[in-house]
Amino acid sequence: MDQPSQYVSVLILALVAIAYAFGILILSVVVGQRGRRDRVKDTPYECGMLPVGEGNARLSVKFYLVAMLFILFDIEVVFLYPWAVVYKGKLLDHANLFFGSMVTFLGILFVGYIYALKKRAFDWKS
Question: Count H helices, E strands: the chain?
Answer without folding.
Answer: 5, 0
